[in-house]
Amino acid sequence: MQLPDLAWQIVYGRLGWTAVLAALLLALLPRSWRLPRSAAVLVPAACGLLMALPGKASPAYWLGLALQYPSGLLLGLCLLSLCARWRGAAPRSFMSTPLAAVLAVAGTALYLDAIGWLSLGLYHAGFGPTAAPALALLGAAGCALALLRGHGGREAPALFGAFVLFSLLRLPTGNLWDAVLDPLLWGWALAALCRRGWRRAVRAPQRAALPIEPFSISKEQVRDK
User: Fold this and answer.
1) Looking at residue 100, what is its pLDDT?
2) How many other CB atoms are found less than 10 A from the CB of residue 216?
3) Which pTM does this prediction carry?
């Protein structure tokens, strides 16, 4: 088991929660609002100053107690969202349905294992000295290959950054699971799935109620008759 240096963890926690809070604040604004590019700088800067406050005066202290550290994947997705804001675009959801499904299932399995309903030792396996680093390297290689081929969408860069961060510095906690999943990200995945499922359930009756266009006979079919 190789744990990250405590100083690196503290710095990571402050920077990570800065990006998460800034992305969340900007995401709560209506998409119709056209914010100036300076907003994509001023909001993260203000959040960074807030997180840099010493000791218990910093929100990062209390967020760390409640949620520990943001995962590398959550940090990557938030940074991508902030970059999109910098380019002047109001980004849509960075959580695709396949990624949300995988995170929801993995998170549920981990939490059921943590409370003893499964007792498989899944979280502890993330500290493995051989398997966990090997999986991280394979994951990083897969993401790099997807990026080179122009696939992977927005998730591939975020996943690649999470795997590299874990491989080089063992951040955020030295556990591979914490590099790609955290309670906030798990809740985001569940909310994304519920929202899309609700939209489909609402749209299905509307599509069924649409009038069916009458069958039209072409001129060639009339001539044949």
Assistant:
1) 93
2) 6
3) 0.87
Tokens of 72: 């590398």
Can you give the chain as a three-state secondary structure string? CCCCCHHHHHHHHHHHHHHHHHHHHHHCCCCCCCCCCCHHHHHHHHHHHHHCCCHHHCHHHHHHHHHCCCCHHHHHHHHHHHHHHHCCCCCCCCCCHHHHHHHHHHHHHHHHHHCCCCCCCHHHHCCCCCHHHHHHHHHHHHHHHHHHCCCCCCHHHHHHHHHHHHHHHCCCCCCHHHHHCCHHHHHHHHHHHHHHHHHHHHHHHHHHCCCCCCCCCCHHHHHHC
> Which tokens sit at 73?
């994947």
pLDDT by residue (tens digit) across 192-216? 999 888 888 887 666 665 555 554 4
**Closest residue by Cα to residue 158 from 208, 84, 50:** 84
